[in-house]
Amino acid sequence: MKLPILLLSTIATAIALEFDDQENLNAQVISQNIFENSRSDPLSFESKDNENSLQKRMVNETKYTAYILEHGSNLEIEDVLEFLPNNYDSDPSLSAYCREAKHVIQSKQDLFDLQAQCPTVKGTVHIIDYDSQEVNLGSIEKITGDLLIEDSPEIVRIIAPALKEVGGTFSLHSLTSLVLLDVGIMTKVKAIDWKVVPILNTVSLNDNIENLESIVISDTSLSEIEGFDKIYELEIFNINNNRFLEIIRTNLKQVKTQFTIHANAKEMQLEMPELEFAENITVRDTSSVYFPKLERVASSMEFIENLFTELEIPTLTAVGGTLGIIDNQNLKSVNFSGVTNIQGGLMISNNERLETLDFLPTLKQIGGAIFFEGRFQDTDFPELKLVKGSAYINSNSETLDCSKWTTPISGRSIIRGGKINCTSGRKQKSISVNENGDVIQGSEVVTETEVVPEKKNSYGSSVSNSSSMKTISQMSVLLWILVVGAVTITSNIAI
């Protein structure tokens, strides 16, 4: 709402009375400017709403005057301007051109005209189909909207020697020749979204960047990501397909919407020493993971096709969705000793070196189904009291005891999702249970184990096609877990 002239004179008087020393001279000048503008152009400050009743105006004036008097010498320019949205311009020298909602830049001349006239651009700058190798933002200090540079195969360098702030998203999309980005004095930006900049290998960022809410960096040649040491909370943290990126280390404490790391360098190390909470976590293709303070994941957490030998997160207490540990071929040791509740399913599949599933010693409840598959010899969940979904178990071990799952000692199973299927070697046993865990029926079948033949490649090496079949099988079962809520766990155990 635009303010009436009476209110502005009140604000001016209140500020002038409160700020009577030289240190607060700026505040007095601001108030005087507001008052003078209201006198010279009263209509510009009059309310344009249909509700211009005297009573409402007096209420507003009383409220704002009380605010001014209450805050006194702590009042800043932003506090005054907050009451004058879109009416009192802190930089009236800007031309109408600089205030345009969107500037489309396609040539060096377009960019020169913009930076020559506008130290501040009150809108979005969209650089597309640019005809030169260098983008130089020159004297532009602030862009209140987005900075989008895309679809320009000619661009090799982007330089912003004066740019301090981007109010929206800083996007780089489909810049296939870009090698260097220098935004070294930029300290404020809302989101970073860099995709398909495949040979970008040099980035200069300020170490004091703030206000960031989202970071997406995909398909670059960066070997390290720096400049985010003072970012502690993000909505989105997605780093993927950066083939030379060998380490990610941040001081993030919370990721509130999406945390995704995948398809970077094979030896990539993921270090998050301060991370305490994430909405969800997906980690693929890493050689080590370090989450020493992680306490809670609100949705799902998945570790897929990593190369690490150990996965230890003893501080974790709860997972709000599905916990998946899948296709980690070198994994030998896991420690989730603090987890007491998994609200979704539990999927542990095809971790060939994981011999015992005993890394959830305090787990009490699983809200979905369980799916175990691999070479494990034993399962041990001493505190587990309830599994709301079904169970499907499959192991190649000759020592796995299926009776832990199919023959409950008390006569009542902890599985309440309808079915338990445990295959041990050539012997498969299935039982059905009701919602109270009572066994309804059971069956035991002896089957011949099918051996998948190996193929020879052109170099004479043995190649098995079992991997793709496993993947298809796993995805089918996972969909069953997530969508139907009744899953089986198969254990191929030779007894």
TrEMBL record:
The keyword Phosphoprotein does not apply. Keywords: Cell membrane, Glycoprotein, GPI-anchor, Lipoprotein, Membrane, Signal. The keyword Glycoprotein applies. It is found in: Cell membrane. Residues 1-16 form the signal peptide. GO terms for cellular component: cell surface; fungal-type cell wall; plasma membrane; side of membrane. InterPro entries: CWI-Assembly_Regulator, Rcpt_L-dom_sf. It is a lipid-anchor; GPI-anchor. GO terms for biological process: ascospore wall assembly. PANTHER family: SPORULATION-SPECIFIC PROTEIN 2-RELATED, SPORULATION-SPECIFIC PROTEIN-RELATED. Belongs to the SPS2 family. This is Receptor L-domain domain-containing protein. It comes from Vanderwaltozyma polyspora (strain ATCC 22028 / DSM 70294 / BCRC 21397 / CBS 2163 / NBRC 10782 / NRRL Y-8283 / UCD 57-17).
